[in-house]
Amino acid sequence: MSRYILAIDQGTTSTRCMIFDHDSSPRAMAQLEHTQIFPQPGWVEHDPLEIWQRTQAVVASALAQAQLSRTDIAAIGITNQRETTVVWNRHTGTPYANAIVWQDMRTDTLCRELGGSVGADRFRAQTGLPLATYFSGPKLRWLLDNVPGLRAAAHNGDALFGTIDTFLIWHLTGGSQGGIHVTDVTNAGRTMLMNLHTLQWDADILAAMEIPAQMLPSIRSSSEVYGTAVGILAGVPVAAALGDQHAAMVGQACVHPGNVKNTYGTGCFMLLNTGNTIVPSTHGLLTTVAYQFGNQPPVYALEGSIAIAGALVQWLRDNLGIIERSSDVEALAASVPDSGGVVVVPAFSGLFAPHWRSDARGVIVGLTRFATKAHIARAALEAVAWQTREVLDAMEQDSGVPIALLKVDGGMTANGLLMQIQSDVVDVPVIRPVISETTALGAIYAAGIAVGFWRDLAEVQSKWREDTRWTPRMDATQRTRDYARWQKAVDRTLNWIED
Q1: pTM across the whole model
Q2: Which residues pair with 371 in a beta bridge?
Protein backbone atom coordinates (compact mmCIF):
# COMPACT_ATOMS: atom_id res chain seq x y z
CA MET A 1 0.00 0.00 0.00
CA SER A 2 1.21 3.52 -0.80
CA ARG A 3 2.14 5.22 2.46
CA TYR A 4 2.19 8.93 1.65
CA ILE A 5 0.13 11.79 0.23
CA LEU A 6 1.78 14.51 -1.84
CA ALA A 7 0.64 18.14 -1.79
CA ILE A 8 1.41 20.75 -4.43
CA ASP A 9 1.00 24.16 -2.79
CA GLN A 10 1.20 26.76 -5.55
CA GLY A 11 1.24 30.19 -3.94
CA THR A 12 1.56 33.79 -5.02
CA THR A 13 5.32 34.00 -4.56
CA SER A 14 6.48 30.38 -4.58
CA THR A 15 5.58 26.78 -5.32
CA ARG A 16 6.03 24.11 -2.69
CA CYS A 17 5.75 20.34 -2.61
CA MET A 18 5.20 18.59 0.72
CA ILE A 19 4.88 14.88 1.40
CA PHE A 20 2.99 13.66 4.49
CA ASP A 21 2.56 10.28 6.14
CA HIS A 22 -0.63 8.82 7.62
CA ASP A 23 -0.04 10.60 10.94
CA SER A 24 0.00 13.96 9.08
CA SER A 25 3.71 14.35 9.76
CA PRO A 26 5.68 16.03 6.96
CA ARG A 27 8.27 13.74 5.39
CA ALA A 28 9.75 16.17 2.86
CA MET A 29 9.40 19.74 1.62
CA ALA A 30 10.83 21.54 -1.40
CA GLN A 31 10.11 25.14 -2.39
CA LEU A 32 11.03 27.52 -5.22
CA GLU A 33 10.08 31.14 -5.79
CA HIS A 34 8.90 32.42 -9.15
CA THR A 35 9.17 35.83 -10.79
CA GLN A 36 6.81 38.67 -9.86
CA ILE A 37 6.17 40.74 -13.00
CA PHE A 38 5.00 44.37 -12.70
CA PRO A 39 4.51 45.74 -16.24
CA GLN A 40 2.71 48.91 -15.09
CA PRO A 41 1.63 50.43 -11.77
CA GLY A 42 -1.16 48.26 -10.38
CA TRP A 43 -0.48 45.37 -12.77
CA VAL A 44 0.82 42.04 -11.42
CA GLU A 45 1.61 39.03 -13.60
CA HIS A 46 3.18 35.57 -13.45
CA ASP A 47 4.65 33.39 -16.18
CA PRO A 48 2.45 30.24 -16.17
CA LEU A 49 5.15 28.09 -17.77
CA GLU A 50 7.63 29.15 -15.10
CA ILE A 51 5.11 28.05 -12.46
CA TRP A 52 4.68 24.69 -14.20
CA GLN A 53 8.47 24.25 -14.41
CA ARG A 54 8.84 25.13 -10.72
CA THR A 55 6.09 22.64 -9.89
CA GLN A 56 7.88 19.80 -11.66
CA ALA A 57 11.15 20.75 -9.98
CA VAL A 58 9.80 20.82 -6.42
CA VAL A 59 7.96 17.51 -6.89
CA ALA A 60 11.18 15.84 -8.06
CA SER A 61 13.14 17.45 -5.25
CA ALA A 62 10.70 16.38 -2.51
CA LEU A 63 10.60 12.80 -3.77
CA ALA A 64 14.40 12.67 -3.86
CA GLN A 65 14.69 14.25 -0.41
CA ALA A 66 12.37 11.61 1.06
CA GLN A 67 13.92 8.83 -1.06
CA LEU A 68 10.50 7.93 -2.43
CA SER A 69 9.12 7.04 -5.84
CA ARG A 70 5.66 7.40 -7.41
CA THR A 71 4.66 3.95 -6.07
CA ASP A 72 4.93 5.31 -2.53
CA ILE A 73 2.38 8.07 -3.20
CA ALA A 74 -1.31 7.29 -2.70
CA ALA A 75 -2.68 10.55 -4.10
CA ILE A 76 -1.89 14.12 -5.10
CA GLY A 77 -3.69 17.12 -3.62
CA ILE A 78 -3.43 20.63 -5.05
CA THR A 79 -3.89 23.94 -3.30
CA ASN A 80 -3.33 27.21 -5.08
CA GLN A 81 -3.37 30.98 -5.14
CA ARG A 82 -6.93 31.89 -6.06
CA GLU A 83 -8.35 34.21 -8.75
CA THR A 84 -5.08 34.28 -10.74
CA THR A 85 -6.18 33.88 -14.36
CA VAL A 86 -4.52 31.82 -17.10
CA VAL A 87 -5.47 31.27 -20.76
CA TRP A 88 -3.62 28.74 -22.91
CA ASN A 89 -3.84 26.77 -26.15
CA ARG A 90 -5.31 23.28 -25.73
CA HIS A 91 -3.17 21.85 -28.54
CA THR A 92 0.24 23.22 -27.47
CA GLY A 93 -0.12 24.20 -23.82
CA THR A 94 1.31 27.63 -24.67
CA PRO A 95 -0.20 30.53 -22.70
CA TYR A 96 -1.67 33.37 -24.76
CA ALA A 97 -0.39 35.84 -22.18
CA ASN A 98 1.10 36.00 -18.72
CA ALA A 99 -1.23 35.05 -15.91
CA ILE A 100 -3.04 38.02 -14.38
CA VAL A 101 -2.51 37.73 -10.62
CA TRP A 102 -5.28 38.19 -8.06
CA GLN A 103 -3.63 41.42 -6.82
CA ASP A 104 -3.76 43.00 -10.30
CA MET A 105 -5.94 46.11 -10.64
CA ARG A 106 -6.16 46.68 -14.40
CA THR A 107 -9.87 45.73 -14.48
CA ASP A 108 -10.96 48.61 -12.24
CA THR A 109 -12.67 50.59 -15.01
CA LEU A 110 -14.13 47.40 -16.52
CA CYS A 111 -15.66 46.42 -13.17
CA ARG A 112 -17.38 49.80 -12.90
CA GLU A 113 -18.68 49.43 -16.45
CA LEU A 114 -20.00 45.93 -15.71
CA GLY A 115 -21.75 47.23 -12.61
CA GLY A 116 -23.72 49.70 -14.72
CA SER A 117 -26.61 51.32 -12.91
CA VAL A 118 -26.69 48.56 -10.28
CA GLY A 119 -23.11 48.98 -9.13
CA ALA A 120 -20.73 46.57 -7.41
CA ASP A 121 -23.52 44.28 -6.19
CA ARG A 122 -24.82 43.41 -9.67
CA PHE A 123 -23.86 39.73 -9.38
CA ARG A 124 -23.64 39.37 -5.59
CA ALA A 125 -26.92 37.42 -5.21
CA GLN A 126 -25.65 34.71 -7.58
CA THR A 127 -21.96 34.70 -6.64
CA GLY A 128 -21.65 36.12 -3.12
CA LEU A 129 -19.05 38.56 -4.46
CA PRO A 130 -18.91 42.29 -5.25
CA LEU A 131 -17.65 43.40 -8.64
CA ALA A 132 -13.98 44.00 -7.89
CA THR A 133 -10.59 43.73 -9.54
CA TYR A 134 -9.86 40.76 -7.23
CA PHE A 135 -11.86 38.15 -9.12
CA SER A 136 -11.09 36.09 -12.22
CA GLY A 137 -14.11 36.80 -14.45
CA PRO A 138 -13.26 40.43 -15.20
CA LYS A 139 -9.59 39.46 -15.68
CA LEU A 140 -10.65 36.88 -18.27
CA ARG A 141 -12.87 39.43 -20.02
CA TRP A 142 -9.91 41.84 -20.13
CA LEU A 143 -7.71 39.18 -21.74
CA LEU A 144 -10.41 38.37 -24.31
CA ASP A 145 -10.66 42.07 -25.16
CA ASN A 146 -6.94 42.83 -25.27
CA VAL A 147 -4.98 39.75 -26.42
CA PRO A 148 -5.03 39.59 -30.24
CA GLY A 149 -6.75 36.45 -31.55
CA LEU A 150 -7.79 35.14 -28.12
CA ARG A 151 -11.52 35.69 -28.49
CA ALA A 152 -11.56 33.92 -31.86
CA ALA A 153 -9.51 31.05 -30.41
CA ALA A 154 -11.95 30.79 -27.50
CA HIS A 155 -14.98 30.61 -29.83
CA ASN A 156 -13.19 27.98 -31.92
CA GLY A 157 -12.54 25.82 -28.86
CA ASP A 158 -8.76 26.25 -29.04
CA ALA A 159 -8.30 28.47 -25.95
CA LEU A 160 -8.74 27.18 -22.42
CA PHE A 161 -9.25 29.23 -19.27
CA GLY A 162 -8.38 28.23 -15.75
CA THR A 163 -7.17 29.34 -12.39
CA ILE A 164 -3.84 27.86 -11.30
CA ASP A 165 -5.39 24.61 -10.03
CA THR A 166 -6.88 23.99 -13.49
CA PHE A 167 -3.64 24.80 -15.29
CA LEU A 168 -1.63 22.42 -13.08
CA ILE A 169 -4.16 19.57 -13.23
CA TRP A 170 -4.28 19.84 -17.03
CA HIS A 171 -0.49 19.56 -17.24
CA LEU A 172 -0.19 16.88 -14.54
CA THR A 173 -2.71 14.64 -16.32
CA GLY A 174 -1.19 14.86 -19.80
CA GLY A 175 -1.48 18.42 -21.06
CA SER A 176 -2.08 18.51 -24.81
CA GLN A 177 -2.08 14.70 -24.79
CA GLY A 178 -5.36 14.23 -22.95
CA GLY A 179 -5.02 16.55 -19.95
CA ILE A 180 -8.13 16.89 -17.79
CA HIS A 181 -9.71 20.38 -17.86
CA VAL A 182 -11.41 20.76 -14.45
CA THR A 183 -11.63 23.04 -11.45
CA ASP A 184 -13.19 22.63 -8.03
CA VAL A 185 -16.05 24.55 -6.44
CA THR A 186 -13.78 26.67 -4.22
CA ASN A 187 -11.76 28.00 -7.14
CA ALA A 188 -14.76 28.27 -9.47
CA GLY A 189 -16.53 30.25 -6.78
CA ARG A 190 -13.83 32.92 -6.93
CA THR A 191 -14.20 33.61 -10.64
CA MET A 192 -17.46 35.54 -10.22
CA LEU A 193 -18.82 33.23 -12.92
CA MET A 194 -20.18 30.37 -10.75
CA ASN A 195 -23.63 30.41 -9.18
CA LEU A 196 -23.32 29.66 -5.44
CA HIS A 197 -26.70 27.93 -5.40
CA THR A 198 -26.27 25.59 -8.39
CA LEU A 199 -22.45 25.23 -8.27
CA GLN A 200 -22.46 25.64 -12.06
CA TRP A 201 -21.33 28.39 -14.43
CA ASP A 202 -24.01 31.06 -14.55
CA ALA A 203 -25.18 31.59 -18.14
CA ASP A 204 -26.50 35.11 -17.47
CA ILE A 205 -23.18 36.27 -16.02
CA LEU A 206 -21.21 34.67 -18.87
CA ALA A 207 -23.41 36.58 -21.31
CA ALA A 208 -22.99 39.84 -19.40
CA MET A 209 -19.20 39.44 -19.33
CA GLU A 210 -19.08 38.16 -22.94
CA ILE A 211 -17.17 35.01 -21.97
CA PRO A 212 -17.51 31.91 -24.21
CA ALA A 213 -18.62 28.95 -22.07
CA GLN A 214 -16.57 26.46 -24.10
CA MET A 215 -13.29 27.77 -22.71
CA LEU A 216 -14.30 27.07 -19.08
CA PRO A 217 -13.35 23.93 -17.14
CA SER A 218 -15.82 21.45 -15.68
CA ILE A 219 -16.67 22.17 -12.03
CA ARG A 220 -16.08 19.29 -9.62
CA SER A 221 -16.01 18.79 -5.87
CA SER A 222 -12.87 19.54 -3.85
CA SER A 223 -12.21 15.89 -2.98
CA GLU A 224 -12.51 13.30 -5.74
CA VAL A 225 -10.27 11.63 -8.30
CA TYR A 226 -10.07 13.92 -11.34
CA GLY A 227 -7.60 11.76 -13.27
CA THR A 228 -4.17 10.17 -13.00
CA ALA A 229 -0.82 11.83 -13.37
CA VAL A 230 1.76 11.26 -16.07
CA GLY A 231 5.51 11.82 -15.91
CA ILE A 232 7.38 11.45 -12.62
CA LEU A 233 4.12 10.73 -10.77
CA ALA A 234 2.66 8.48 -13.49
CA GLY A 235 -0.39 6.57 -12.33
CA VAL A 236 -0.91 8.49 -9.10
CA PRO A 237 -4.48 9.82 -8.69
CA VAL A 238 -4.90 13.60 -8.75
CA ALA A 239 -7.59 13.63 -6.09
CA ALA A 240 -8.11 17.10 -4.62
CA ALA A 241 -8.08 20.78 -5.45
CA LEU A 242 -8.85 23.65 -3.10
CA GLY A 243 -8.08 27.33 -3.17
CA ASP A 244 -5.40 28.00 -0.59
CA GLN A 245 -7.66 29.61 2.01
CA HIS A 246 -10.21 26.81 1.77
CA ALA A 247 -7.45 24.23 2.11
CA ALA A 248 -6.23 26.03 5.23
CA MET A 249 -9.75 25.81 6.65
CA VAL A 250 -9.70 22.02 6.23
CA GLY A 251 -6.13 21.82 7.53
CA GLN A 252 -7.17 23.80 10.62
CA ALA A 253 -10.06 21.37 11.16
CA CYS A 254 -12.56 24.24 10.94
CA VAL A 255 -15.24 21.80 9.86
CA HIS A 256 -18.14 22.91 12.07
CA PRO A 257 -20.31 26.04 11.84
CA GLY A 258 -18.78 28.85 13.88
CA ASN A 259 -15.17 27.69 13.43
CA VAL A 260 -12.92 30.51 12.20
CA LYS A 261 -9.33 30.65 10.95
CA ASN A 262 -7.00 33.36 9.68
CA THR A 263 -4.16 32.66 7.25
CA TYR A 264 -1.19 35.02 7.08
CA GLY A 265 0.53 34.80 3.71
CA THR A 266 1.07 37.31 0.93
CA GLY A 267 -2.37 38.56 1.92
CA CYS A 268 -4.45 37.75 4.97
CA PHE A 269 -7.65 35.72 4.81
CA MET A 270 -10.16 34.97 7.54
CA LEU A 271 -12.92 32.41 6.97
CA LEU A 272 -15.90 31.58 9.18
CA ASN A 273 -17.64 28.25 8.60
CA THR A 274 -21.41 28.78 8.13
CA GLY A 275 -22.23 25.12 7.44
CA ASN A 276 -24.60 24.30 4.60
CA THR A 277 -26.16 27.77 4.82
CA ILE A 278 -25.36 30.58 2.39
CA VAL A 279 -25.06 33.71 4.55
CA PRO A 280 -25.20 36.99 2.57
CA SER A 281 -22.91 39.71 3.89
CA THR A 282 -24.00 43.26 4.59
CA HIS A 283 -20.68 44.31 6.14
CA GLY A 284 -18.18 44.00 3.31
CA LEU A 285 -17.40 40.28 3.48
CA LEU A 286 -17.55 37.63 0.77
CA THR A 287 -19.90 34.66 0.76
CA THR A 288 -18.01 31.70 -0.62
CA VAL A 289 -17.89 27.90 -0.83
CA ALA A 290 -15.66 26.62 1.96
CA TYR A 291 -15.30 23.12 0.46
CA GLN A 292 -17.25 20.17 -0.90
CA PHE A 293 -16.20 16.56 -0.41
CA GLY A 294 -17.44 14.16 -3.07
CA ASN A 295 -21.22 13.98 -3.26
CA GLN A 296 -21.76 15.62 0.13
CA PRO A 297 -23.57 18.98 0.30
CA PRO A 298 -21.27 21.98 -0.02
CA VAL A 299 -20.11 23.82 3.09
CA TYR A 300 -20.14 27.62 2.88
CA ALA A 301 -18.19 30.39 4.60
CA LEU A 302 -17.98 34.10 5.16
CA GLU A 303 -14.58 35.44 4.17
CA GLY A 304 -12.66 38.62 4.83
CA SER A 305 -9.88 39.08 2.27
CA ILE A 306 -6.95 41.42 2.98
CA ALA A 307 -4.69 42.05 -0.01
CA ILE A 308 -1.42 42.88 1.75
CA ALA A 309 0.04 41.14 4.81
CA GLY A 310 3.30 39.26 4.27
CA ALA A 311 3.75 41.31 1.10
CA LEU A 312 4.15 44.36 3.34
CA VAL A 313 7.19 42.78 5.01
CA GLN A 314 8.57 41.89 1.57
CA TRP A 315 8.11 45.55 0.61
CA LEU A 316 10.10 46.66 3.66
CA ARG A 317 12.82 44.23 2.57
CA ASP A 318 12.88 44.65 -1.21
CA ASN A 319 11.67 48.21 -1.82
CA LEU A 320 12.81 50.10 1.26
CA GLY A 321 15.76 47.90 2.21
CA ILE A 322 15.28 48.40 5.95
CA ILE A 323 15.62 44.65 6.63
CA GLU A 324 17.83 42.07 4.93
CA ARG A 325 15.58 39.06 5.46
CA SER A 326 11.83 38.92 6.08
CA SER A 327 12.45 37.19 9.40
CA ASP A 328 14.44 40.23 10.59
CA VAL A 329 11.28 42.31 10.95
CA GLU A 330 10.38 40.80 14.33
CA ALA A 331 13.62 41.75 16.06
CA LEU A 332 13.60 45.23 14.51
CA ALA A 333 9.98 45.85 15.53
CA ALA A 334 10.63 44.49 19.03
CA SER A 335 13.49 46.94 19.53
CA VAL A 336 10.93 49.68 20.25
CA PRO A 337 8.04 49.50 22.74
CA ASP A 338 5.47 50.86 20.25
CA SER A 339 5.20 52.44 16.80
CA GLY A 340 5.94 55.94 18.07
CA GLY A 341 2.68 57.20 16.60
CA VAL A 342 3.45 55.86 13.10
CA VAL A 343 0.62 54.08 11.25
CA VAL A 344 1.07 52.16 7.98
CA VAL A 345 -1.96 51.31 5.84
CA PRO A 346 -0.75 49.03 3.00
CA ALA A 347 -3.44 49.77 0.41
CA PHE A 348 -1.03 48.89 -2.41
CA SER A 349 -3.82 47.16 -4.34
CA GLY A 350 -6.60 49.31 -2.96
CA LEU A 351 -8.48 48.15 0.11
CA PHE A 352 -10.17 44.74 0.16
CA ALA A 353 -12.54 43.63 2.95
CA PRO A 354 -14.45 45.22 4.49
CA HIS A 355 -13.97 48.44 2.48
CA TRP A 356 -13.64 47.33 -1.17
CA ARG A 357 -12.13 50.62 -2.32
CA SER A 358 -10.00 50.37 -5.46
CA ASP A 359 -9.34 54.12 -5.30
CA ALA A 360 -7.29 53.74 -2.09
CA ARG A 361 -3.49 53.72 -2.00
CA GLY A 362 -1.02 53.03 0.78
CA VAL A 363 0.00 55.63 3.33
CA ILE A 364 2.47 56.07 6.17
CA VAL A 365 1.16 58.70 8.58
CA GLY A 366 2.15 60.05 11.97
CA LEU A 367 5.77 60.63 10.98
CA THR A 368 7.95 62.87 13.16
CA ARG A 369 11.72 63.29 13.51
CA PHE A 370 11.44 60.74 16.34
CA ALA A 371 10.36 57.96 13.94
CA THR A 372 12.93 55.33 12.91
CA LYS A 373 12.90 52.27 10.71
CA ALA A 374 12.08 50.26 13.84
CA HIS A 375 8.87 52.26 14.35
CA ILE A 376 7.92 51.70 10.69
CA ALA A 377 8.59 47.97 11.09
CA ARG A 378 6.39 47.79 14.17
CA ALA A 379 3.68 49.83 12.46
CA ALA A 380 3.78 47.32 9.58
CA LEU A 381 3.08 44.42 11.95
CA GLU A 382 0.33 46.42 13.62
CA ALA A 383 -1.20 47.07 10.17
CA VAL A 384 -1.64 43.34 9.62
CA ALA A 385 -3.31 43.00 13.01
CA TRP A 386 -5.64 46.00 12.63
CA GLN A 387 -6.78 44.88 9.18
CA THR A 388 -7.69 41.54 10.76
CA ARG A 389 -9.59 43.35 13.52
CA GLU A 390 -11.72 45.14 10.91
CA VAL A 391 -12.61 41.81 9.29
CA LEU A 392 -13.35 40.11 12.61
CA ASP A 393 -15.74 42.91 13.57
CA ALA A 394 -17.56 42.57 10.23
CA MET A 395 -17.75 38.80 10.67
CA GLU A 396 -19.38 39.09 14.07
CA GLN A 397 -21.89 41.60 12.70
CA ASP A 398 -22.82 39.41 9.70
CA SER A 399 -23.02 36.13 11.61
CA GLY A 400 -24.37 37.39 14.92
CA VAL A 401 -21.90 35.04 16.61
CA PRO A 402 -19.17 36.43 18.92
CA ILE A 403 -15.80 34.96 17.97
CA ALA A 404 -14.21 33.42 21.05
CA LEU A 405 -10.83 32.42 19.63
CA LEU A 406 -8.86 32.77 16.43
CA LYS A 407 -6.98 29.85 14.84
CA VAL A 408 -4.03 31.12 12.82
CA ASP A 409 -1.70 29.65 10.23
CA GLY A 410 0.70 30.63 7.46
CA GLY A 411 4.28 31.81 7.36
CA MET A 412 3.79 35.02 9.39
CA THR A 413 2.62 33.06 12.44
CA ALA A 414 6.29 32.30 13.12
CA ASN A 415 6.48 35.95 14.21
CA GLY A 416 5.61 35.78 17.90
CA LEU A 417 5.45 39.56 18.27
CA LEU A 418 2.87 39.81 15.48
CA MET A 419 0.77 37.07 17.08
CA GLN A 420 0.82 38.86 20.45
CA ILE A 421 -0.16 42.15 18.77
CA GLN A 422 -2.94 40.26 16.97
CA SER A 423 -4.34 38.87 20.20
CA ASP A 424 -4.13 42.31 21.79
CA VAL A 425 -6.08 44.12 19.08
CA VAL A 426 -8.84 41.50 18.60
CA ASP A 427 -9.09 40.81 22.35
CA VAL A 428 -9.39 37.02 21.99
CA PRO A 429 -6.87 34.17 22.28
CA VAL A 430 -4.85 33.44 19.14
CA ILE A 431 -3.93 29.77 18.62
CA ARG A 432 -1.30 28.35 16.27
CA PRO A 433 -1.38 24.61 15.46
CA VAL A 434 1.63 22.30 15.52
CA ILE A 435 1.72 22.35 11.72
CA SER A 436 1.26 26.01 10.74
CA GLU A 437 1.45 25.45 6.96
CA THR A 438 -2.11 24.20 6.88
CA THR A 439 -2.78 24.90 3.20
CA ALA A 440 -0.72 21.85 2.23
CA LEU A 441 -2.30 19.89 5.08
CA GLY A 442 -5.81 20.63 3.82
CA ALA A 443 -4.87 19.51 0.31
CA ILE A 444 -3.51 16.17 1.51
CA TYR A 445 -6.52 15.56 3.75
CA ALA A 446 -8.92 16.17 0.84
CA ALA A 447 -6.88 13.92 -1.47
CA GLY A 448 -6.46 11.24 1.17
CA ILE A 449 -10.18 11.08 1.95
CA ALA A 450 -10.94 10.79 -1.79
CA VAL A 451 -8.84 7.61 -2.09
CA GLY A 452 -9.63 6.11 1.34
CA PHE A 453 -6.27 6.96 2.90
CA TRP A 454 -8.21 8.66 5.71
CA ARG A 455 -11.79 7.84 6.58
CA ASP A 456 -13.50 11.22 6.83
CA LEU A 457 -13.29 14.76 8.20
CA ALA A 458 -13.88 13.51 11.75
CA GLU A 459 -10.60 11.59 11.54
CA VAL A 460 -8.91 14.70 10.16
CA GLN A 461 -10.26 16.80 13.04
CA SER A 462 -8.83 14.37 15.58
CA LYS A 463 -5.33 15.02 14.21
CA TRP A 464 -5.35 18.79 14.88
CA ARG A 465 -2.97 19.80 17.68
CA GLU A 466 -2.44 23.16 19.40
CA ASP A 467 1.14 24.43 19.52
CA THR A 468 1.16 27.99 20.91
CA ARG A 469 -1.49 30.27 22.40
CA TRP A 470 -1.31 34.05 22.79
CA THR A 471 -3.75 35.86 25.10
CA PRO A 472 -4.66 39.57 25.17
CA ARG A 473 -2.52 41.91 27.30
CA MET A 474 -3.56 45.31 25.99
CA ASP A 475 -5.53 47.71 28.15
CA ALA A 476 -9.05 48.22 26.78
CA THR A 477 -8.70 52.01 26.75
CA GLN A 478 -5.51 51.81 24.71
CA ARG A 479 -7.11 49.33 22.31
CA THR A 480 -10.01 51.68 21.66
CA ARG A 481 -7.71 54.68 21.20
CA ASP A 482 -5.34 52.86 18.84
CA TYR A 483 -8.20 51.44 16.78
CA ALA A 484 -9.63 54.92 16.29
CA ARG A 485 -6.19 56.12 15.14
CA TRP A 486 -6.02 53.21 12.68
CA GLN A 487 -9.45 54.06 11.25
CA LYS A 488 -8.39 57.70 10.87
CA ALA A 489 -5.33 56.54 8.90
CA VAL A 490 -7.53 54.32 6.68
CA ASP A 491 -9.61 57.39 5.83
CA ARG A 492 -6.44 59.07 4.55
CA THR A 493 -5.99 56.35 1.89
CA LEU A 494 -9.37 56.91 0.21
CA ASN A 495 -10.06 58.82 -3.02
CA TRP A 496 -6.39 58.90 -3.94
CA ILE A 497 -7.01 57.61 -7.48
CA GLU A 498 -9.30 59.82 -9.51
CA ASP A 499 -10.53 59.22 -13.05
Answers
A1: 0.86
A2: none
